[in-house]
Every structure is written in structure tokens, then in C-alpha cells.
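Example 4.3 (complexes with small molecules)
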Amino acid sequence: MTAGVSAGMTVSAGMTESTAAPAMDTPPRLAVDALLDDPGTRIIVCCGAGGVGKTTTAAALGVRAAERGRKVVVLTIDPARRLAQSLGIDSLDNTPRQVAGVAGGGELHAMMLDMKRTFDEIVEAHADAERARAILDNPFYQSLSAGFAGTQEYMAMEKLGQLRARDDWDLIVVDTPPSRSALDFLDAPTRLGSFLDGKFIRVLMAPAKVGGRAGMKFLNVGMSMMTGTLSKLMGASLLKDVQTFVAAMDTMFGGFRTRADATYRLLQAPGTAFLVVAAPEADALREAAYFVERLAADRMPLAGLVLNRVHGSGADQLSAERALAAAENLEEGGIVDQESGKAGLRDSDAATPPLAEEPTRADENATVTATATVTVTEPDEGATDEGVTDGITADEITAGLLRLHAERMQVIAREQRNRDRFTSLHPEVAVAEVAALPGDVHDLAGLRAIGVRLATG
Amino acid sequence: MRAPEAEWLGSLAVSRLQVVSGKGGTGKTTVAAALALALAREGRRTLLVEVEGRQGIAQLFGTEALPYEERKIAVAPGGGEVFALAIDAERALLDYLQMFYKLGSAGRALKKLGAIDFATTIAPGLRDVLLTGKACEAVRRKDKAGRFVYDHVVMDAPPTGRITRFLNVNDEVAGLARFGPIHNQAQAVMSVLKSPQTAVHLVTLLEEMPVQETADGIEELVAAGLPVGRVVVNMVRPHHLDEEALRAAAGERRAEVARALSRAGLGGARRGGLAERLVEPLLTQAAEHAGRVELEREQRGVLEGLGLPTYELPLLGAGMDLAGLYELATELRKQGDEE
Ligand SMILES: Nc1ncnc2c1ncn2[C@@H]1O[C@H](COP(=O)(O)OP(=O)(O)OP(=O)(O)O)[C@@H](O)[C@H]1O
Ligand SMILES: Nc1ncnc2c1ncn2[C@@H]1O[C@H](COP(=O)(O)OP(=O)(O)OP(=O)(O)O)[C@@H](O)[C@H]1O
Ligand SMILES: [Mg+2]
Ligand SMILES: [Mg+2]
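Answer. The structure with magnesium ion bound is encoded below.
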């Protein structure tokens, strides 16, 4: 059993609205506004598989929290260019900038992470000028800081620690790096830390230290053979670079580990809330499930799942099969017009049940809009619409509409199956649904629209 | 500046190493597999390799995890064969040490000390030399009769953001290993990768970010002198209605649509009738569709501006399975032949 939201771990008691006796198969709803408004919420971390909408969600939460009165900073990682531009954070100076155009009583600051710069800053802050220069110029350091697996995650954590230490904001929203696995955010820093702190590194700098002890003589022989091999293999220069780097960094290693540990603890603290973002796709939800389990194992506070880019339909009473059959009928052109106003038609397939006449809720809404905005001319009894007035017949248009609808219904069905699988694994996890918007989200208006859906979905 | 043109299907001198990159999740693994199938025509043999230790190929073909060993995983229509290999950097390094230094126990000692881990995970250039080195070895390998063992090697490569660095091992390693066998290996690898024997394809979707990444990726590849192949637009959705039809449907022809729905057996077309009530939500969906088509048109324009030949693969609505993979392979062949 995973204890994802056992009482001690939820961010605040009011987090999940218990809608009156939810059915077994409907997960509790994630109360996003309650989370954002709670002054006890200090850090929100948006995690998830690649491309699911972590950056968008983080930015949208930032905007919404600010417009609800909080002083927020959003740490984004690799945001889409247009989004960065519209937030005014496209210059890489690695520090938060206030975002203009945010309404309400709060403030929104945003930044995008520059991982190399963050790494350089740590070096500069923890070594004297000369030593810092030696490290920064070291080719091995340059390769490490520019693109080493895990560096981005480590630096994201580091930046989070720095922002938290400044205490200038009452809420920090953190995006996480695009990686295929959400777990990387938690694992990569440890991996890097254990490298910087690892056995091998110690061995590289060891001869002096280990050699003293009698029992280590044997190891020392092995060592020299090993370094010999390594330098043959990689060329002596690499080994020398690494050794110089290690020597120069020596005093800092403890610091790396200590800070990584501190940030990790920060993530376990009660003021932190993790949001797992997923698209309703099998891969993304599988990742989300792993992540939920991992958070529980690490006693990190999960607020819930953001199910992003969910599809819906205002005409979901019309199944894909019926829509396709109807489209085919129209395309075959074999239908003679007939009395309108009746549900049953002569060609209607006996195997497909007639549509329920009771409108669903979505359908009612649709009807309201339709009558409110459109003048529907009464259908002309007995008239045929086969005339090719605009080069395309009404039947062709309608068949197109029906095919589109069938596709939509297939998507919805697939998404529902994926969601059900997740819910059956983790029925306790609260969910906020965000509809798929027709276009990209790249400005404040778009982020607000996502925010509204986060809060109400 | 354009990269040297890579040859393609249907041509006699097809690139023997085809590298498939693209933004994460756009379908690199799927497209690489379909490409390996497509290239395995008329009795040819292809090798599909993966380099990120994720067993994506095994998942896709529904087989158990691939060992570090070349295995036949599929037969292409027409009798060609597809082999697969998951290259593991650590194993490649140990093999390599064994080959050059006969390092039995020392190899194990290195492993114990974390040196292998260090070398393969930590020094990124080194890892990449080993991975690309193994792929290039397969490209060059010949049988006793002097024929190439594989007609093509298709690589399911790292994503766009890392591909240039990954393939440009020479530069990467130059900063790290300036002499020695790794250095020499890097040189040998580069002589394959920077030649017309290689083509780097980029998979994208018709969305802003993947397209942007594709444009950036091509620029980087070209600047590094790596041969850019094709752009593969994946998961292309069919367009059902053009904007004009949609405008008409939303405007003066709304009632006609309601009647057509009714004729098709979907209820009454009068106000409040079932068919009539379907019109609005169907139109909303269609408007969203039209919006997307418009965005896709924009992105197509950006892709056209890149001046590279482009393939399009349809979105398989039912999700991916083996049959779908063969369908995509057939599509690639068709478009390759038409090129
Ligand atoms: N609900 C939505 N409706 C429509 N488009 C969306 C929605 N959410 C996100 N997008 C779009 O999807 C794309 C990917 O989103 P985003 O960049 O937030 O994902 P990510 O998880 O941060 O990706 P990465 O893993 O690459 O960092 C963007 O173009 C964004 O505008
Ligand atoms: N043409 C297509 N139609 C339908 N689904 C597709 C298509 N191409 C890929 N997919 C699906 O999209 C998902 C991502 O594809 P794939 O794993 O090939 O991408 P990738 O780029 O290799 O991802 P990663 O970056 O994680 O390695 C998979 O679930 C795959 O089945
Ligand atoms: Mg992102
Ligand atoms: Mg893949």
C-alpha cells in the first residue's frame, strides 16, 4: 500500500475536497486554490515525464497564486521561447525578474535556470578567486558543468535552495528539467553528489592518504595499475585534468553533499507540495505512478496529480461508432431527406440503440449556447440539402464534423482507460484536470486559462 | 549552408548509417524501428541499435529485454531481416579493454572501484565514443566473402538537444582524451559520422516546441559538419474540414447541417431536437480542429523554410502495435520511392 496522502503528509487538511461520497472510480479532486492560498504552502514542485506540461503548469500556478495575492517566484527550466519572452525572462541572467501585467494584490517573479552559471556561482562562492579560476578553466569541469547527466537536476535543486534561503517570496513554484523520467529530479542530484563524493574520486586523489596504512599497500598496487590503464585508455591528460579538478574541488565536496542533503530535507518539509503532472497517456501516467510511489517511500508530501491536456466533448452522448456510421451514410449519399423532428429514421441501424433523448449536462449547455448565439432557421420540411452551393455539400460538411467527432470520442475513450488504470493503482491521489486547449500556451492569458482549469477541473 | 545531401530509399547509394533523433517523445524509437523495417527490403539486412539503455526497441516489438548481442527481431515484407542491439556503454568499455589490453581481472577491479561507472556515466565524451564506436563498427563489419554484414544500421539516438554533442565525439573527446586509443577510436568514428555514409534524421510533431528544436538541431548539426538527412513529421492527423467549409457550417448552413445529421439517423433537426442540439458541440470541436490546422500550417511553413526533404507519418489512432509499425514502414518506403 502506498501512503501517498496519509494525514501526516498532506500539505494541509483542506487539500482534497471530499465531494459527497465519491464513487469508487472517481478520484478526489485536487483543491488547487486552497493549496495556493494556504500561507503554509511555501514550495510547489511540478514533476512529471517529458513534455507533459510541467513548465506550463508551474507558470500557470505562479500567475494564479500571484493574482490571488501571494508573492511568488517561479523557477522555470527550459521554457518554450515564446513563453519565456512573454514572461520577460528570456534573458539568461539566472536571477528572478518581476513579471509585468499580473493583476491582483500579489507579485510574480520568474526566472529560467542557467545551469552552468549556477554551477559557476557555487564554485565562485566557495573557493578563493585563484582556486575558483583554476576550477572554472579546467576542461573536465567545463564538460561536467555544461551537460553532464544530472547537472541540470542538481542545479535546479541548488537554485531552489538559494531562492528559499533568500526568503524574499512566500511561495516558490519549481519546474523540473525535461527528462524522460520524473524520478530523475530526485535521483540525479544524489548520483552527481555521490560521484563528487565517491570512491573513485577518493582513489584518484588517494595515493598520499591511503599509502600510509599498511593494510592498504595491496590496494595501492592495484591503484597504480588502474590509473596506468586509465591514462593509457583516455590519455594521461584527462586523468590529470580530473585529478587537478578533484584537488581544487577538495574543500568543496563536503559542501556539495551538505547542500544537496539540505535541499532534499527541504523537499520533505511540511511546507512543500509536490504536484505530479501527466498527460492522460499510458507512458506519462505510468511515470506518474512510479513517482507517486517514490514520493511516498521518501516521505515527500504529494499534493496530487495534474492531469493535463485532457480531451472532452460537448456531444459525448454520440458514440464514435454511431458518428462514423452516420458519416458513412452521408458520404454514400444514399439517404433521401425525410421528415425531420423524429429520432428514428428508416436507415437507422437496428444494432445501434437510438440516442437517449434526455440531454446530458454537457448537452444542455450546448443547447443553451446554441439557442443563445445562433438563429436556427426552422428546417424546411421535405427540402433536400444536396445542392452544391459552396462547392461542398451540407452532407460532406456534416460527414466531416462526424468524423472529427468520432476521432475525439476515440481519444476520450483511450484517455479514460489510461486514467482508470492510474486511479485503480492510486485511488487516494487527488486529481485536477486541465483540458487540452486548442493552441499552445505562451502568454499570461493562456496561463490564466490554464489556472482556471487547474482550480476548477 | 546545407549539409551534404544524404541518400535515401530507392536510391542505390543509401546512407549506411541512419541516425534518428528528435525532441523527446516525438517518436524517435518508433520511427527508427519503422525505418529499419523499411530499409530491410528485398532480402536486405538492417541493424537497429539503441544507445540509451531504455529497452525501447524490446518494448516496441513486444520481446523480452535485448541482451548485449545482435538478435533478429523482425522479418520485413519481401524477406529482409531486422536485427536489434541495445548497446551498453559499460559492456562496450569492458569489451574494449579486453580487446586492447586483455584486462581480465584489472577490468573487474576497475569496475569495483567505480571507474567504469565513472568512465561511462561521468565522462560524457567517453561514453559517446563507446556507443557510436560500436554502431560504426557494425556499419563497417564485413563477412568472410567481404560483403557488409548489415546493409544499414539505424540508430535510435539521443534527443535533439544532445545529438550534436553525442555525434561530435571528436570535439568532445579532444577536450578530454587528447591521446591514446580512445582518441584514435574517436577519430575513426568521426570519419564515418561526417561522411555521406551517415544521415541524421530529425523526428518532429507539428507543434511549436518540437519544430523549434528541429530548426535549432539542424543548425547545430550543420555547424558541426554532420550530415543532415530528412525531417520526419510524425503523428500527423487527418484534416477533415477546411476553414471555408467550417465557416459555412457555423454560419448560413447550420440548419442544413442539422438536417443532414437528422437524415443520417441522429435525431430531429428542429430546434431542440437531438440532431439540432448536436450541431453546436460538433461545430465547437470543428473550430478547435480548424485552429489546430492553422497552427500546424504555421509549423509546416517553418519546416519548409528549413529546405530539407520531409516525410510525414500518420497518427495511428488505435495506438502503436506491430501492425502499426509495418504500416509506418510501408509509408516510409512509399514516400522514399516517390522522392
Ligand atoms: N493544457 C494544455 N493545452 C494546450 N497546450 C498545452 C497545455 N499544456 C501544455 N501545453 C503545451 O504543450 C507544450 C509542452 O508543455 P510544457 O513545455 O509545459 O511541457 P514540459 O513538461 O515542461 O516539457 P519538458 O519536459 O520538455 O520540459 C507547450 O507547447 C505548451 O504550450
Ligand atoms: N505515428 C504514431 N501514431 C501513434 N502513436 C505513435 C506514433 N509514433 C509514436 N507513437 C507513440 O508515441 C509515444 C512516443 O513514441 P516513441 O517512444 O517512439 O518516442 P521517442 O521519441 O522515442 O520517446 P523518448 O524521447 O521517450 O525516447 C509512444 O507511445 C508511441 O507508441
Ligand atoms: Mg519544461
Ligand atoms: Mg525512444
